[in-house]
Amino acid sequence: PKKIVIQHDTKDELQKMAVTFNRMIGRLEENLEKQRQFISDASHELKTPLTVIKSYADHLLRRGIRNEAEALEAIETIHSEATRIQKMTERFLNLADTESGNHLDAKPIDLVILCQNIIKQLKSAYKREINLYFANPSITVSADELKLKQAIIIIIDNAIKYSTNHIDVYLNENEHNTIIKVKDYGIGIPEYEIKNIFERFYRVDKARSRETGGTGLGLAIAKNIMKQHHGEIKISSTEGVGTEAELFLPKS
Ligand code: ADP
C-alpha cells in the first residue's frame, strides 16, 4: 500500500482549516446560546402578564360577578395585560424579522414627508408637542419605508415615554449621511447604561419601564433596522437633562 506522506505545507493548510472550523463552531455555539437566552427571556417576559391574567380570570370564575365594580376592574386588568402580551409578541416577530437579514425593500423616500406623517400620528395619539426642523424642504433617502418608519417611531416613542416636555426632531444631511435626530428633555440615561440599552430586553429601570409599557426590545429592533440599511444608531444622554437619539442613513 502506498504511504501517505503529509507534507509540511499540507499540514499547515490543515491546521489553518482546523482553526477556521473551530471559529465557525464557536460562532454557531454563540448564536445558539443567544437563541436559548432569547427564548428564556421571552418566556420570562410573557409569564408575568399571563400570571396576572390567570389569577384575575380564576377569581372571576370562582366568585362570579358578585360585585360589578370589582369585576370590571378584573376585566380591565385582563384587557391591559393581554394588550401588553400582544404588543410584546409583535415586537418578538419584528425582532426576528430584522435579525434574519431579510432583504430590504429599499426605494427613494421623502424623509420630510415621512417624518411629518409620523409626527402627526404620534402627536394626536399622545397629545404631546413634537417639533420638526429640517435643513432642506425635501430630503430624499433610499430606504425600506416601513422599517425606517418603525425605527423613527421607536426613538420618538421613547422620547415620549421618558420625558414630559416637548420633543424636537431634526433632519440634517452631511456629505456622508442623512441624520434623523430626536431630542428630549426628560429623565435621561446614566452614562454607564448607554452601552446596555441596545441589548434585547434591557431596561434601565424595569419597574418604570413596565409602567410605561416598555418591552426592552425597541432599541434592539431599531439597531437591527439601521444595520440592515448599513447605517447606525447613536444615543447620548445626560441624566436629568435629556436624551439625543440619532439615526444615520448613509448616502449611496
Ligand atoms: P423600552 O420598550 O423599555 O422603552 P427600549 O429598547 O426602547 O425599551 O429602550 C431600552 C431602555 O433604554 C428603556 O427601558 C429606557 O430605560 C432607556 N431609554 C431609551 N430611550 C430613552 C430616552 N429617550 N430617555 C430615557 N431613557 C431611555
TrEMBL record:
Main location: membrane
Domain HAMP: 1-33
Keyword terms of this UniProt record: ATP-binding, Cell membrane, Kinase, Membrane, Nucleotide-binding, Phosphoprotein, Transferase, Transmembrane, Transmembrane helix, Two-component regulatory system
Catalytic activity line of the entry: ATP + protein L-histidine = ADP + protein N-phospho-L-histidine
GO molecular function: ATP binding; phosphorelay sensor kinase activity
All residue ranges annotated as the Histidine kinase domain in the record: 41-252
EC number from the UniProt entry: 2.7.13.3
UniProt membrane topology term: Multi-pass membrane protein
Enzyme kind, highest EC tier: transferase
Intracellular or extracellular location(s): Cell membrane
GO CC terms, sorted: plasma membrane
Designated name of the protein: Signal transduction histidine-protein kinase ArlS
Source organism (scientific name): Neobacillus bataviensis
Included range, full protein: 202 to 453 of 453
